Amino acid sequence: MAIELLCRKIGMTRVFNEAGACIPVTVLEAGPNTVVQKKTPERDGYSALQLGFSDRRRKTLQKPRIGHYEKAGVGPKRVLKECRVSAEELDQFEVGAEITASVFEAGQKVDVIGTSKGKGTQGTVRRHGYKVKRKTHGTHEGYRRPGSIGAGAYPGKVIKGQGMFGHMGSEKVTTRNLEVVQVDAEKNLLLVRGGVPGHANGIVRLRPASAPK
Q1: CATH 2.40.30.10 domain range(s) in the chain
Q2: d(CA 31, CA 192)
Q3: Whether the Cβ atoms of residue 11 and residue 26 lie closer than 8 Å to each other
Q4: Which residues contact 64 (CB under 8 A, 6 or more apart)?
Q5: Distance between CA 97 and CA 86 in Å, rounded?
Q6: CA 104 to CA 205: how far, in whole Å?
């Protein structure tokens, strides 16, 4: 278990390494994350840190949530998430402490968890990659239709898991084993090789790779 840092996806750009090769990277604003609460095995049954990210106006919150932040001695936060940690890691942080991008280092493998972009309702061609039918004899207006979706006599029904049209995107996605190219501790910026799920200004969670290659 390790820290899952809350980050804001700023956008994509490119950098050049010492050999002059162009590397596409995603820029993430990694905090600072503020420890709002500590969950202990004795009181809660598990050990975790509750992290807050991005300041929020006080008047936009309900009184119970305001009291929660005042008890921790921190300002209101826009995003509040928990991350499971070990008992040893839990003792390293106190309520009100700030966690910055310096917990990661260049060359480290990380996993990025976010919500993919919503695409609305899509057909089977775009959603599942079905082949477009040939525009020839016998095919009328159904060039992008799925075709037969079930058997005849047996089992006589549509099999579970059949690819159909429907809502696409806006799902939890984990991109694994991305490389941290650069760490700017002063500006709390992380440059991660490749793309990460979600739209610009979206919130993602960054953690050390659970199964690094």
Answers
A1: 5-118+174-208
A2: 15
A3: yes
A4: none
A5: 17
A6: 13
DSSP bridge partners of 49? 38, 83
Architecture of the domain spanning 5-118+174-208:
Beta Barrel (2.40)
Residue pLDDT tens, the chain, 213 long = 588 999 999 999 999 988 899 999 999 998 799 999 999 999 999 999 999 999 999 899 899 999 999 999 999 999 999 999 988 888 889 999 999 998 999 999 999 999 999 999 999 999 999 999 888 888 888 889 888 888 778 888 888 899 999 999 999 999 999 999 999 988 999 999 999 999 999 999 999 998 876
d(CA 174, CA 195): 11
Computed from CA positions of residues 10, 208, 51, 75, in that sequence, does the dihedral angle turn out positive or negative?
Answer: negative
Q: What is residue 1's predicted lDDT score, i.e. its pLDDT?
A: 57
Residue type, 95: V
Tell me the one-letter amino acid at 80: L
Q: Please check whether residue 211 is in contact with residue 144, taking contact to mean a CB–CB distance below 8 angstroms.
A: no
Q: In the chain, what's the furthest Cα-to-Cα distance?
A: 73
Structure tokens belonging to residue 104: 């990661």
Residues 6+ away with beta carbon under 8 Å from 154: none
Question: Rounded distance, CA 181 to CA 20, Å?
Answer: 14
